Amino acid sequence: MDVPADPWWKHAVVYQIYPRSFADSDGDGIGDLNGITGKVDHLAALGVDVVWLSPIHPSPQDDNGYDISDYCAVDPVFGTLADFDRMLAALHDRGIRLVLDLVVNHTSDEHPWFEASRSSVDDPRRDWYWWRPPRPGMSPGAPGAEPTNWASFFGGPAWAFDAASGEYYLHLFSRKQPDLNWENPQVRAAVHDLVRWWIDRGVDGFRMDVINMISKVPGLPDGLPGTAGPAQGLLADGSPHFICGPRLHEFLQEMHREVLAGRPEPLLTVGETPSLTLAEGRLLTDPARAELDMVFQFEHVDLDRGSTKWDRRPLDLRALKASLARWQEGLADVGWNSLYWGNHDQPRAVSRFGDDRPAFRARSAKLLGAVLHLHRGTPFVYQGEELGMADVPFTDIGDFRDIESLHHYRDAVAAGADPAQVLAALRVSSRDNARTPMQWTAGEHGGFTTGTPWLAANPDHVDVNAAAQRDDPDSVWAFYRRLVALRHHEPVVVHGDFTLLLPQDERVHAFVRRLDGVELLVLANWSADDVRPDLAAELDEGQWRGAPVLLANLPDPAPGFELRPWEVVVRVRRPG
Ligand code: NOJ
Questions:
Q1: In sequence order, what are the beta bridge partners of 151?
Q2: In b/e form, how buried is each residue of 419-451, taking b as 16+ CB within 10 angstroms?
Q3: 352-400 per-position pLDDT tens digit
Q4: Of 252, 251, 259, 243, nearest to 205 (Cα)?
C-alpha cells in the first residue's frame, strides 16, 4: 500500500471560508479573523483538514477583497496580523492547515504598484501592467477606441481610459482590478516574494485565483465581435487570447521552482482555472511538471449555463455524470482532481443540483455530499454546505451587493431587458446566493453578527442552522462528518479506481470504486421518484444484494437496488 508516501492533501478535505460572511466578532456586520478563531471548534468537529480562506488583505473591497492593495497585511475590516497569527495557531493546534487565496492575475488600482505605474509613462513600474494606446485612427476615450474589443467579466470593455497619459489599461475584471503584466520578470519576482512572505508566516498553501489567465497572447488580438452576450453589444469574449496563454506553464514552473519546491512539508496549490480543457488539466497537475497540485475546473458547473451565466438551462444528469467521469478517468494516471459543487462564486449546491423543497432539502444535500466525496480527488466544502444552506429569496435589486450582479442588472436593463426578468435571473445565478451570512443559530441574523450584516441573512436560518444540527444524528452536518471521516479511514475512497455505471440513466447516478479487492458501490437517485435501476448488465446483483451499507441518507435501505426519492446508498464488499 503506497498510502504513507502520498502528499497529505490527497487524504484531506478542505473547507472554504468566505471571511466577510463567516462570523463577525466585533458587531460591524462584517465577518473577521477573530470570528473565525471563535469557530475553529466547528471546523474541528466537522473533521476537515484544511481551511481555504478567501482574501483577507487590505482592499478597497470593490470585489470583496479580490482587489488587493497590499499583499503582506490584513485589511482592518478583518483584523490585524496578530489576529491572523492567533487564528493560524488555533487552526494548527487542531491539526487544521491553512491555504490562502493568491490573487495575482490583477491587483487593486489602489495598490502602490499600480499607483506608480499610472503616475507616468516613464515610471519604472509602467510596464508592470498592460498599457496600450487607443486603436489606431480613433480618438482617445471615444467609444470603440479601446485597444481590443474584449469585454470585462463584470460588464463593459476590459480596458479603462486614463486621461492623464492618453492610454488604456487592461482589466479582465472590474476597472479597479488592473491586470498585472506577467511578461515582466520584475512582476514575477515580486509575486514570488509575497508568496514566500506568507509561507514564512506559516501558511500551508495557496488557492490561485484565475491563475490560467496570467499569460496573454502577445499582440492581444481582438475576439469575435458580439460573442460577449446580449447585454454587451459588439464587445467580444477575449478568452481565447488569455485562457492558458503561451507562457502559463513556464510561469507556474518558475514559481514552483523559485518558491514552492523543497519545503520540509509539501504545500497545497490549487489553481482556479475557468474554461479549462482536460488536456490542459493534465499538464497543470502532472507532478513531474511541478506546476500545481490540483485545479478547479469548471466543466460541471457550466453545464446548466446557456449563452451567458445569466441564462440558466435545465441540467441533464447524464451530461453531469459524463463530465465528472471524464475528469476522473482523465486524471487517473497523472494529476489529481479537486471536487466541488459550490464556492463563493456559485449558487448554493442544494438549490442548483439538489431539491431545496422542505421534504427533500436535507436528503438531497446529503446525496450531493455523498456523490462528491466518493469521487477520487480532494473534496472542497463551501461554508454552510455542511448544513444544506440554500439559495436566497431575493426580491429587489437593493438586496444584492455583488459587483458582477449589480453591473449585469445595470447593463441588461440599459440594453432594454425587462427588469423583472433580469431580477429573476439574478435570483437563480447571483454569487450573493453563496455570500449571505453563515447560519449559526435561529436567532437574529443567524447569530452571525450583533450588528447589521453587510448582506442580509437568508430568512430560512430559523430552520437551517448549525445549532439545530450539531446534536442531531440525522442532520446534514452529521452526515458530512461521516463523509469526512470515511475519507480518512477508507483507502478505497482516496485511491480506488472509478467506474461509472448506467451512463444513460436520467435519474440514477451509479458508480463503483475499487482498491485491493475492496469495492464500493454508490447508488444515488437524483429525482423525487421511486426508481429501480437495472444494473444487471453491469453488476452481479446477487453479489451486492444485502452487502453491508457503509453510508445512507435514509433509514432501512432496500436490500436490492430500489431507491426512494433522493436516496443515496453506499455499499461495500471486502475480500474474503
Ligand atoms: C475568481 C474569484 O473567485 C472571484 O470571486 C473574483 O471575482 C474573480 N476571480 C476576480 O478575482
A1: 157
A2: eeebbebbbbbbbbbbbbbbbbeeeebbbbbee
A3: 999 999 999 999 999 999 999 999 999 999 999 999 999 999 999 999 9
A4: 259
Cβ atoms within 10 Å, residue 302? 12
- pLDDT of res. 3: 43
Weakest-pLDDT range from 147-151, 178-182, 368-372, 545-549? 545-549
Ligand 1 mean position to 210 CA, how many Å? 7
Centroid of ligand 1 to alpha carbon of 306 (angstroms) = 21
Pair 67, 174: CB distance under 8 Å: yes
Residues 6+ away with beta carbon under 8 Å from 430: 347, 394, 400, 402, 404, 405
Predicted local confidence at residue 4, as pLDDT: 45
Residue 210 CB–ligand 1 contact under 6 Å: yes
Residue among 272, 385, 386, 402 flagged as catalytic: 272
> Torsion angle of alpha carbons 525, 526, 531, 532, nearest 10°?
-50
Centroid of ligand 1 to alpha carbon of 272 (angstroms)? 9
Q: Is 431 helix (H, G, I), strand (E, B) or coil?
A: helix
Cα of 456 vs centre of ligand 1, distance in Å, is: 21
Told to judge if 562 belongs to the known catalytic residues of this protein, a careful annotator would answer: no
- In whole angstroms, what is the distance from residue 36 CA to residue 43 CA? 10
Concatenating the DSSP letter of every residue in 84-148 gives: HHHHHHHHHHTT-EEEEEE--SB--TTSHHHHHHHH-TTSTTGGGB-EEPPPTTS-TTSTT-SSS
Most informative mutation of 102, 153, 154, 209 for ligand 1 (most atoms within 8 A of CB) = 209
What's the pLDDT band for 334 if we cut at 50, 70, 90?
Answer: very high
Place of cell 479597479: 176
Q: What is the pLDDT of residues 103-128, one digit of tens each?
A: 999 999 999 999 999 999 999 999 99
Cell of 222: 481582438
- Determine the average pLDDT of the residues in 489-517: 98
C-alpha span between 456 and 447 (Å, rounded): 12
Tell me the three cell numbers of residue 407. Answer: 453591473
Q: What's the pLDDT band for 129 if we cut at 50, 70, 90?
A: very high
Query: Can you tell me which residue has the cell 491572523?
Result: 84
563 closest CA partner among 534, 542, 521, 532: 532
pLDDT tops 90 at residue 250 = yes
In angstroms, what CA-CA distances link 6 with 47, 265, 290, 484, 495?
20, 12, 15, 18, 10
CB atoms within 10 A of CB 72: 12
Kindly state if the Cβ of 270 falls inside 6 Å of ligand 1.
Answer: no
- Pair 145, 157: CB distance under 8 Å: no
- Give, to the nearest 10 degrees, the angle between helix 361-373 and helix 476-489: 10
pLDDT of residue 231: 84
1 pLDDT tier (thresholds 50, 70, 90) = very low
